[in-house]
Amino acid sequence: MLDAFEILTTSGIVLWRRSYAPVPSSVVNSLVGDVFIEDRRPKDAQGQQQTSYKKDKYTLKWTSAKDLGVVFVAVYQSLLHLSWVDNLLTAVKALFTKDYGIELKKAHVTKLNTQPFDATFDALVRKLDTGSTRRQSEADSEGPIELTPPSSAASASEEAVDEPPPPPIPAPQFKKPAVSRKEQFEGTSTDATPVPTPDTSRPSTPASHILTAKSGPGKASRRSRKAQHTLTSAPASSGDESSAGRNKKTATKAKRRWDADGFAVEGEDEVLDYSAAADSQQEQGEREVDVEDVNASQMGSRTGKGQFVLKDLDDEVDAILASSKQQVKPDSTEGDAGLLGSATSRLTGLFRNVVGGKTLTKQDLIQPLQQMQNHLLEKNVAREAAARLCASVEADLLNQRTANFTSIDSTIRESMSKALTRILTPTSSLDLLRDVTTTISPPNPRPYVISIVGVNGVGKSTNLSKIAYFLLQNQFRVLVVAGDTFRSGAVEQLRVHVRNLSELSRREDVGKIELFEKGYGKDAATVARDAVTYATNTAGTEGNGMLFDVVLIDTAGRRHNDTRLMSSLTKFGQLANPDKIFMVGEALVGTDSVAQARNFAKEFVDTKGKLRNNGVGMDGFIISKCDTVGDMVGTLVSMVHATGIPVVFLGVGQHYGDLRGLNVGWAVDKLMK
Amino acid sequence: MAGSDTPNDWLTWAFSPTISAILVTLVVSLCLPVLIHYYLYRKASAKVLPTVLLIGPSGAGKTTLLTLFANGTPSATHTSQEPQTALCQLPSTTSSHEDRYRSEHDTSSRSQPKFLLVDTPGHGKLRHHALSSLTSPTALKGLVFVVDSAAVSSAAGLTETAEYLHDVLLLLQKRHTQSKTSRDPQAIPVLIAANKQDVFTSLPASLVKSKLEQEIAKARQTRSKGLLDSGIGMEDDGGDDEESNWLGQYGAKEFKFAQMEEHGVEVKVIGGNVRGEGEEKGRVEEWWAWIGENL
Prior knowledge:
By secondary structure, chain A is α/β, with parallel strands linked by helices.
């Protein structure tokens, strides 16, 4: 069963909300933040993008009406599998747009009177709810069905009519009690009497082949007997519950009777509990009232607004669902209206293109978007990233009107700049000096650990020395760790860098730098851990307590598709536990950048298996060799698009001072030039 | 001849000294200018409403504040993705700037001024909406920077808030110091609204002020020492020197909001809460008063 359903605007105001269970507001906030703003949709195993979002123990599904700027969100427990939520979303979107679309289009709307929508929603849920295919635990089932009563704005007769329908609503969810029984049997071995629950279940357990696998020794025979009995019972997905109020089958659960042999007595509906009579009577009453309902609505007598809504709703909702399932055939080329007709239409099309005010259709956008995609590909953006950017621009601009005196091309360019700006802007900008200062200052000081990873030959050691130079200029004490124990000459290279930097720092009288190395052939992770211990060492230091403020760890370059080498990174990440992990990517790399970024990012999991840094893996990219590519800085976009990790530094030369931060406007300018 | 007679007759009558002709002439000569005036000035009479901008980090309560000011009661809200504008009117209990010359006992009826309240998203990726509204030339009369008083008690929340506030104040300072006309652009006062004062862990407004000042001092220090931007060759106005990127008084160790006054930016910190606990209403009267003074 649904936990909550919300309708909110893109500016954040909740227009209408129905909650069946208390859902914390952070769940929807994180949906908006992760999916809509940061565009971080998780992919499942096949690489397909999912249309649902999971957070804590909730699953969220959504749809949006872009022209009105309204988003519809349905929240339910992840344990359930509700297949009717998509239909519900489509139907709610169509009905809400029809009811309130005009009001929403007015300017400055911050509040709507959406009380009448309560009844519509209730009717929709009744109609579409086909139950869940897995039941959640019992504690949940009893509690949260606190249906808000129909709005007080409804007429009195509507109140009377709505009374019988609410009791049946709990019923549909109890169609699949098989799992509950399975849970009980797994837990206890001797207690086979099911706890009587208010939610009624069928006396026989369908689909009990799962049960037989897990049963204890003494129960196999009974279960298998049951299995034979129950194969003829109703199938798991009951399509017959789709219409409101019918086929409730709220039979009470029969109590298990035991005979002398220790086997349950089957097939008898004899119950000692006399409350069953009352239930069945109530059920009879409900059924009769339901029959009355149908008659009354057909005749249209003494009915309030609610009845009419229900009746019209059926036809309308069927039409909506049917149309959403149909493939809408795209309008193929215009019918030939003769030479003159086509010539004039083309002329007016051109005119409209220049003057503006043209509503953009899919047909109009194909050609310019293709050109824009080629333009991006020329700028060295990976094909996957360019395709996704163009798809998002198309989704934005479809059915919008161009502004006055702007052509389609310029509209697309503007929209593309906005999309690029959004991708490249980080959610929270990195202030490295700030972080370092905070970590080394008095309440529990410790050294700040940064490590650099990347494939072979991208410039890790060079950029590491540039960062060391920057930190030295800010009066920090830096320890450089030779974590590359594989490549010949790696340690010597770092030794030369440290010698140069210590000479520079001595001349300017800033900072202190030292090299920590353990030769070749050792395990990089243990070298790193030893280095951090050495830097934290407090023996024999002047005042501060730590020998070094910042530890920079170099690692060996490795191919991203070599699993053995990549897996050693995980161990490295867990042992050294760096504060920041930066991956260096060169600006010259082509479409391989996407795969590189993804493979590196997914290696950095902490001991619990969760990706560090809020689930993205690394803390930033350093894009090196930017001076060699000129305008073609598309690698920035590809790597950010692949992982959602921001670019923090750019390497623009081979000297110690050639390190810059990223200016988003500059990057977008270069890409759109 | 009948055709030419009737216009002839009309004209003769119009120029004749009969009472009816005089009356008609009087009516026409008085009404015609009035009608022309209304026709010409019906478009120009649409005044440009003053605008107040709502800015702040994510989760501070900007959208809730917008709904409270626009509708009288706050609605439930989630993270904003787009800016939203609402038409608000000062409540009758607040006195506005225009009333400063009225005497206390003036009982003439007046309608409270209306203004546009613009809410911007606070998420890191969407801050360009807010920053571009600051630089675009609209009738911006005031800036309300909404702060979550409970979040500033933690280090991470304080850093994020202070960095955003630093960027906003720097933008206002640059707008003032780098204006191209000799006349100063109109100064925009800033209200730092310390929201969520009803939460248990919230700090009082004075403590929020001092914490923000310290944090902004640290932020401007690290900004000045940080790496150069990749876009340094891009700007056409002589390039930024260190002084123009330094907020407040150049070279001063501490930052106080009073230092911003030399750039015409008056900063005030006032506490309040949009939502009251349980059934209580929020306390936003002081914020209304500030808006009233600065409209």
